[in-house]
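For concreteness, we quote verbatim a single protein encoded this way:
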Amino acid sequence: MDRLQQQLNQLKLKVFRINQIFFGSHQGLLVDSGAAHPLRPLRLGETCDSHTQVCVTIYMANGESTALQLTPGNVVVFECHDIEPILPMGHLVKKLGCEVVWKEEGLAIHHTTRGLLPVGNQHGCPQLP
Protein backbone atom coordinates (compact mmCIF):
# COMPACT_ATOMS: atom_id res chain seq x y z
CA MET A 1 0.00 0.00 0.00
CA ASP A 2 2.88 2.36 0.79
CA ARG A 3 4.41 1.77 -2.62
CA LEU A 4 1.08 2.44 -4.36
CA GLN A 5 0.67 5.65 -2.38
CA GLN A 6 4.18 6.77 -3.42
CA GLN A 7 3.34 6.11 -7.08
CA LEU A 8 0.08 8.05 -6.73
CA ASN A 9 1.92 10.98 -5.15
CA GLN A 10 4.48 10.97 -7.99
CA LEU A 11 1.68 10.97 -10.57
CA LYS A 12 0.01 13.97 -8.88
CA LEU A 13 3.31 15.84 -8.96
CA LYS A 14 3.74 15.09 -12.68
CA VAL A 15 0.23 16.37 -13.43
CA PHE A 16 0.98 19.52 -11.42
CA ARG A 17 4.19 20.09 -13.41
CA ILE A 18 2.36 19.61 -16.72
CA ASN A 19 -0.21 22.22 -15.64
CA GLN A 20 2.64 24.61 -14.78
CA ILE A 21 4.18 24.05 -18.22
CA PHE A 22 0.85 24.70 -19.97
CA PHE A 23 -0.15 27.76 -17.98
CA GLY A 24 3.01 28.97 -16.22
CA SER A 25 2.12 31.70 -13.81
CA HIS A 26 -0.63 33.04 -16.08
CA GLN A 27 -4.22 32.17 -15.50
CA GLY A 28 -5.97 30.28 -18.22
CA LEU A 29 -9.15 31.32 -19.96
CA LEU A 30 -11.99 29.19 -18.60
CA VAL A 31 -14.11 27.58 -21.33
CA ASP A 32 -17.66 27.49 -19.92
CA SER A 33 -20.61 25.69 -21.51
CA GLY A 34 -23.10 27.52 -19.28
CA ALA A 35 -21.92 31.12 -19.69
CA ALA A 36 -23.97 33.51 -21.82
CA HIS A 37 -21.36 36.28 -22.07
CA PRO A 38 -17.57 36.40 -21.99
CA LEU A 39 -16.16 37.75 -18.72
CA ARG A 40 -12.84 39.51 -18.17
CA PRO A 41 -11.25 41.87 -15.68
CA LEU A 42 -11.34 45.60 -16.27
CA ARG A 43 -8.15 46.53 -18.14
CA LEU A 44 -5.66 48.97 -16.65
CA GLY A 45 -6.64 52.48 -17.68
CA GLU A 46 -10.05 51.30 -19.01
CA THR A 47 -13.04 53.35 -17.97
CA CYS A 48 -16.66 52.26 -17.88
CA ASP A 49 -17.88 55.41 -19.67
CA SER A 50 -19.06 53.50 -22.76
CA HIS A 51 -20.21 50.43 -20.82
CA THR A 52 -23.77 49.59 -19.88
CA GLN A 53 -24.60 48.54 -16.33
CA VAL A 54 -26.37 45.16 -16.27
CA CYS A 55 -27.80 43.00 -13.51
CA VAL A 56 -26.09 39.59 -13.42
CA THR A 57 -27.25 36.58 -11.42
CA ILE A 58 -24.47 34.32 -10.23
CA TYR A 59 -26.10 30.89 -10.02
CA MET A 60 -22.98 28.99 -8.99
CA ALA A 61 -22.58 30.98 -5.81
CA ASN A 62 -25.90 31.73 -4.14
CA GLY A 63 -28.30 32.96 -6.81
CA GLU A 64 -27.93 36.62 -5.82
CA SER A 65 -27.74 39.38 -8.40
CA THR A 66 -25.06 42.02 -8.73
CA ALA A 67 -24.50 44.96 -11.08
CA LEU A 68 -21.63 44.60 -13.55
CA GLN A 69 -20.51 46.50 -16.64
CA LEU A 70 -21.18 45.28 -20.20
CA THR A 71 -18.88 46.54 -22.97
CA PRO A 72 -20.21 47.57 -26.41
CA GLY A 73 -18.87 44.18 -27.61
CA ASN A 74 -21.12 42.37 -25.08
CA VAL A 75 -18.30 41.33 -22.75
CA VAL A 76 -18.99 41.53 -19.01
CA VAL A 77 -16.15 43.26 -17.17
CA PHE A 78 -15.36 42.96 -13.50
CA GLU A 79 -13.37 45.59 -11.60
CA CYS A 80 -11.30 42.98 -9.74
CA HIS A 81 -8.06 42.26 -11.66
CA ASP A 82 -7.52 38.73 -10.35
CA ILE A 83 -10.74 37.30 -11.78
CA GLU A 84 -10.44 34.34 -14.16
CA PRO A 85 -11.64 35.27 -17.67
CA ILE A 86 -14.52 33.17 -19.04
CA LEU A 87 -15.15 32.25 -22.67
CA PRO A 88 -18.58 30.79 -23.43
CA MET A 89 -18.35 27.56 -25.40
CA GLY A 90 -21.18 28.81 -27.63
CA HIS A 91 -18.98 31.74 -28.75
CA LEU A 92 -16.26 29.31 -29.81
CA VAL A 93 -18.73 27.56 -32.10
CA LYS A 94 -20.96 30.40 -33.35
CA LYS A 95 -18.51 33.31 -33.57
CA LEU A 96 -15.16 31.61 -34.17
CA GLY A 97 -16.35 28.57 -36.14
CA CYS A 98 -14.66 26.08 -33.81
CA GLU A 99 -15.65 22.45 -33.45
CA VAL A 100 -15.94 21.47 -29.79
CA VAL A 101 -15.95 17.81 -28.79
CA TRP A 102 -15.92 16.19 -25.36
CA LYS A 103 -13.68 13.15 -25.43
CA GLU A 104 -12.68 10.67 -22.77
CA GLU A 105 -9.37 12.55 -22.40
CA GLY A 106 -11.14 15.89 -22.01
CA LEU A 107 -12.32 18.75 -24.18
CA ALA A 108 -11.01 19.05 -27.75
CA ILE A 109 -11.39 22.36 -29.61
CA HIS A 110 -10.54 22.56 -33.31
CA HIS A 111 -10.23 26.03 -34.86
CA THR A 112 -10.73 26.38 -38.62
CA THR A 113 -7.32 28.00 -39.25
CA ARG A 114 -5.30 27.37 -36.07
CA GLY A 115 -6.12 23.67 -35.84
CA LEU A 116 -6.34 21.86 -32.52
CA LEU A 117 -6.16 24.37 -29.66
CA PRO A 118 -4.08 23.57 -26.54
CA VAL A 119 -6.88 22.93 -24.06
CA GLY A 120 -5.67 22.31 -20.52
CA ASN A 121 -7.58 20.96 -17.58
CA GLN A 122 -7.25 22.67 -14.22
CA HIS A 123 -9.29 21.27 -11.34
CA GLY A 124 -11.64 19.58 -13.81
CA CYS A 125 -12.27 22.76 -15.79
CA PRO A 126 -11.19 23.15 -19.43
CA GLN A 127 -8.96 26.17 -19.99
CA LEU A 128 -7.10 27.81 -22.85
CA PRO A 129 -3.78 29.56 -22.18
Remarks:
- The chain has two helices and eleven strands.
